[in-house]
Amino acid sequence: MRNAGLFLTIALVLLGCNSGTKKSYKPASIGAINSLAVVMDNDMWEGEVGDRVREHFAAPILGLTWDEPMFTIEHMPKQVFTGTTRHRRSVLFVAIDTTAMAQVKVDVYATPQRVGVIQGKTEEELLKNLDKGAKKIIASFKDTEVKEAQKRFLRSLSKDKVMEDKFGVKLRLPSVYTMGKEEDNFVWIDREIPKGSMNLIAYEMPVSSFTNDSTLVSDIVRMRDSIGQKYIPGPDIPGKITYMVTEKAFAPYVFTTQVAGKNAIEVRGIWEIHNYPMAGPFVTYIIDDAENNRKLVMEGFTFAPATNKRDYMFELEAILRTTKFLKNQQQITAAW
To answer: Do 271 and 22 touch, CB atoms closer than 8 A?
Structure first.
């Protein structure tokens, strides 16, 4: 069977790494955020199996202005996967082997590291295991990438306390972000990037908001548009009133999630400027903060014309997911 010996050996190594019998030093993992090393034979990569890997792991991200892949994939045959190449943070092994599996292993060659292993005795079984295991493996990769991004924020954190003072939450906010606007129930924090800006906003809504499932999407759009009209103006154009609204042609994507251990609604879509040709992606979290009798809304959006925005939006998501609620809305020292 093709590569059976190699991948059976890999499987045994992977299983042995989790046996807990002996701990050994592992080097720090390497790689750009959202990069993925895919280890598989060249002929398989160029065929149906490779197409299926790309279908799952390079699928376009929802809510961007044009298609961008979930991960930037670097394919390599097994002969190249040696030395420091094994220290990549996210790795996917795909092979025909006598052992069938679709699993995720932790810190095999480096730390932190997630290694997805997908094998089958035949190509048909391999494709079946790939379809079955991709969702779980992708979730593990994404969780690792988010944590890596959040760890990198610690290199230089903002000392601004406005989110703590106004909303009783603490974010792991990089120091490159600065205060843009602060009003009674609204905070706007941003950073400059080439050709544009990355932005974070926060505000409160009544705790009774968004309780009707049949009108949920329209209620969210109405909220975003009213906030945009009140607080987020567009360019100053003579004779026109400009402000941010939700893009009208397509409804945003809405999911359930958790932020800081609280139930939340995640919204992804496109913003545009009323009366002016500007647009970009946004991600919004509507957090059910019943303890403080409110819905806390936190959003990240990017303006970067003619530029890929995946990694910008990923950074904003990673920041928002560092949210910590302070006890009784009083400032505390949080251990990151």
So the answer is: no
What is the rounded distance in angstroms from the CA atom of residue 197 to the CA atom of residue 330?
Answer: 31
Strand 196-206, strand 186-193: pairing: antiparallel
Secondary structure (DSSP) of 267-280:
EEEEEEETTEEEEE
Whether this prediction's pTM lies above 0.85 is answered by yes
**What is the spatial distance between Cα 115 and Cα 26, in angstroms, rounded to a whole number?**
14
Q: Which amino acid is at 41?
A: D
pLDDT tens, position by position, 281-328: 999 999 999 999 999 999 999 999 999 999 999 999 999 999 999 975
Q: For residue 308, which phi and psi values (nearest 5 degrees)? A: -65, 140
Q: What is the pLDDT of residue 5?
A: 46
Q: Which domains, ranges and CATH numbers included, belong to the chain? A: 4-153 (3.30.379), 162-329 (3.40.1000.10)
What pLDDT is attached to residue 115?
Answer: 98
Q: At what angle do helices 123-153 and 310-320 cross, to 10 degrees?
A: 60
- Name, in order, each residue with C-beta under 8 angstroms of 13's C-beta and a sequence gap of 6 or more: 108
Question: Whole-angstrom Cα distance, residue 62 to residue 35?
Answer: 18
305 near 291, Cβ under 8 Å? Answer: no
Q: Pick from 257, 268, 265, 251: which is nearest to 217 by CA?
A: 251
